[in-house]
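Researcher: Please translate sequence to structure tokens.
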Amino acid sequence: MLTTRIIPCLDVRDGRVVKGVRFQGLRDAGDPAERARVYQAQGADEITMLDVSATLEERRASRDTIRAIRDSLALPITVGGGIRTVDDAEAVLRSGADKVSINSAAVESPTLLADIADRFGSQCAVLAIDARRAPDGTWRVRTRSGSEEKVLDAVDWAGLGERIGAGEILLTSFDRDGTHEGYDLELIAAVRAAVNVPVIASGGASTPEHMVQAVNAGADAVLAASIFHDGQWTVSAIKQELARKGIEVRQ
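Model: Translation complete:
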């Protein structure tokens, strides 16, 4: 049985970790490399770093920040933000990332996923989907740090993304992000049914029980930020709780 991965997320802006609610009202949460070292010591399985302003500012994710995190870690690192071309992806990987996460650019040019998978392997290509529930009960894709909504069904997009070349789906509920209300379980289940690649659940976690629910809904990994940054839970304590509920984790 594969173990469930616990992934702290570092949302980075101007070289600092930030956190908000539904991508707004960002507050400082520390130094990225320092935070990464803490989470590695606690037993994190991976680290995800998302440069939250890179796309809006039309620049690449900060390579200096990536290098600083890489120098601190032996863990796999996924980096997203401002990756618009294969060359951008290569620059991020050369800076120390193991995987690249693509949202807006993949929506605008789906062949980018295929090109990255062809060049570096699908294990490096993570399709990030920020999804917001529509009045009809489906979910619509949001891009550019949540500021734009597309007429694109998030579940259909996940399936297409896998066929194009995505090796993982990083699935964030825009509605739940930063709310501490728990993951959108219906969204996770719908995407799980549409793809065969691993699904990383994101958006809304505040307790181990929320993570248990996400795994039971079909998530292969759970990503969180606020509960770790604010010291509500350590990664090791989360893993102990998940193991107690019968979920396989790497101790």
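Researcher: Any highlights?
Model: The radius of gyration is 16 Å.
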